[in-house]
Protein 1
Amino acid sequence: MPTTAIVSDIHSNAVALRAVLADIDSVGADRIVCLGDIIGYGPEPLESVDLVAERCEWSLLGNHDFAVLYEPTNFNPGAESAAYWTRDQFEAEPDEAKRRERYEFLGRLRVRVVEKIGPWPLLAVHGSPRKPINEYIFPDDAINAYEKMRQIFDRVDRLAIVGHTHVPGVFTDEPDFYPPDELGAFTYAFNEDEKAIINVGSVGQPRDQDPRASYVLLHDDRVEFRRVEYDIDATAKLIYQADRLSDWLGDRLFEGR
Ligand code: ZN
């Protein structure tokens, strides 16, 4: 039974990504895939892209990858400034072939991938099944946005995996939302009578008040949420040193928000 490690929302936090990759290696996953937002916000975009290119079987295009490659849309000033700073880091690469290779990698990122996991069709997008790059599915939507959730679940055959909100957990078509600590053993077992959208959380900028890096292990019959400690100081220091990256981007890492 193959095991897939799923990472998302790395946001140029290569320190967190390296810690997660070491954890994945220690549990012995068969492959790794990435749901996008490799870059944006954080201090090490080149290292992050190189690691994903080297270690992941495929990766999706997130709104921040899009912003660096094309133009930011609807970004707040801090995120926009980080996107332009990130682009400058790619531009400053002195090795012409390496520079082209990274742009080609970003340009090949896909908007959606459909696979099979056990007997189940599995849809992978960064944001949501109806607006794959940009739409957020918030935990509160399970309570407050019945029509939105209905339309989103209409586009899911059985299972979908997403990132984008940086808040891990499972949406069911009830609709309901379960954070990982409300699932027994941080594990959601797939269920024939239920559709599920699984948010894998964020490697590089968690926003669920838990500062540890988040990722999941996907098995044929279940998904397992994992958290990994990393050297937050190291990433925050690099953010504080880069004058076009707002200090808030470092501060928030300590609090997981
Ligand atoms: Zn993100």
Protein 2
Amino acid sequence: MKKNTFSRRTLLHNTVHLAVLSSAPVLLQACKKAEFRCDDVSGLSAQDAELRAALEYVDRSPHDTAKSCASCAFYVANDENQCGQCTLVKGPIHPLGYCNSWAAKG
Ligand code: SF4
């Protein structure tokens, strides 16, 4: 007669796999929201694009959230997970972005 080999270890193992697989779509959606981009400068004049480049704007601050557009005095926020604006740098601005004109909010 064959012995039942289904153990608590197997049950735990399968439960963990099921939990990981069932949460994958939620995690994927969260990653997509965090990864929106604000680097389309196709609508800018040459002068505005040059200023943006001269100030070395990037979508991801090298200083993390300690110095990012969201904490800059010149940033104008939009809805969550959307590009904002800047009163100095034209074009779409990422809240996690940064440029050399960063200034702390007063
Ligand atoms: Fe971001 Fe620079 Fe504008 Fe500040 S000045 S909001 S750091 S682009």
